[in-house]
Amino acid sequence: MELRQLRYFMEVAEREHMTEAAEFLHVAQSAVSLQITKLEAELGVALFERTGRNLKLTPIGQIFLTHTKSAIKAIDHAKEKVDEYLDPKHGTIKIGYPTSLASHLLPTVISAFRHKSPNVSFHMRQGSYSRLIEAIKIGDINIAFLGPVPTKDPDINTNILFRENISALVPVNHHLSDKKSIFLSDLRNEDFVLFPKGYILQKIAVDACKQAGFVPNITSEGEDMDAIKGLVSAGIGVSLLPDSTFSGAAPNLTVKIPIDSPQVTRSVGIITPKHRDLAPSEKVFYQFTNEFFSVLEQYQ
After folding, report:
1. What are φ and ψ of residue 220, in 5° steps?
2. What is the pTM of this model?
3. Of 7, 154, 278, 294, which one has the fewest beta carbons inside 10 Å?
4. How far apart are alpha carbons 264 and 273 in whole angstroms?
5. Each residue of 149-159: pLDDT tens digit?
């Protein structure tokens, strides 16, 4: 069984016509017919029912087509990986990311990388904190940005790119909006707008409030950063959000206020699998990202 035979078979099955398949493949019809005949002889079954000039898959032909498509897809994927090893400046990088890093950090680093390596493409996958960690472990992706960076997981490598403060976000007409900084305990009587339970940013906020001596009254929840900011701007409550999510300024009708005590921070970095090697293009991106944030830190 030859790879050429399988590709000819798939094309004939798709078009249900020998001549049209041959024209698409830029070969003689007799060549396609010969390879299909050889394939059927090797398998010992008829793959097509011939009705005049048209062809239709037999039931076993349909089953064989399903598995052939999977096999060809795997072979093509393997060929892409070989090509990528030969030329790391080409290839596709799959990256996982959470919503808290989507608005500023990720576009900044990817835009800078694409300027240097324009032939590399990206497949982006947004997910929750726990799902991104699981995706790394099971092999769905090899690189994910996370904040905070997990610790003591035996199946992943971690690399902290930077640490950032988490600040309070209050409506513009809030009684604390004119303060240059606050104690977190100043918000003990406020309604909070946070991510839902199970999101790491909710845990960070709740743990910080408990450290300040109170349990936050969570009256509203949002599953993405824009939703939370919008609820705060509408006066629904206050929130605690990482500084990088503000992109230099607080949203309209809100004010960002630094927190003096307790200092609330998170690490931001990259996780990769401990038991799998990165592909060449992934290694290039990984190294670029480290250097990119190292240079940024020097200017801060």
Report:
1. -145, 150
2. 0.67
3. 154
4. 28
5. 998 889 999 99
